[in-house]
Amino acid sequence: MELVRAERRDEAIALxxxxxxxxxxxLAYSFxxxxxxxxxxxxxxxIKVWRALPGYDGRAAMSTWIYAIAxxxxxxxxxxxxxQSSLSDPEVMSAVEAINPVPSADxxxxxxxxxxxxxxxxxxxRQVIMLFYMExxxxxxVASMLAMPVGxxxxxxxxxxxxxxxxxxKTSVTA
Length: 175
Fold this sequence. Notes:
mainly alpha; 9 helices
């Protein structure tokens, strides 16, 4: 990137921020599953990117470099949060759901049910589901964000769909 080589990192970050903000947020959210925490990590990531721009050597694609920073920041935030309350705590989950206004009671029940099913998936399957479906990222973008081959992303999506389908089948039979 010419702006980085010309030591014009303020201009470089001004171009990078709108191009990557949504994707960095989606990646952080797939790890943290909490909007405010993901927003904090997103802000932290771009501060780290701005500081590290002079050291960017171009060996990796800019997007790969930014996603690596975002992934590491998300994992650090996740480790820090484990000692605090978790979104799996019913009180915390209901407080989070109360913050997000929902148009109807039926949609609220449906979204909560889907969220509970997705939350039961193994971590990697949950992350690819959240990024692919809920953040509308492509297979390639998810692979880049999570530093894994595209084939692995597709396999994880397939396995997650099978688990979700089986869980929905159990839910509808027992309901």
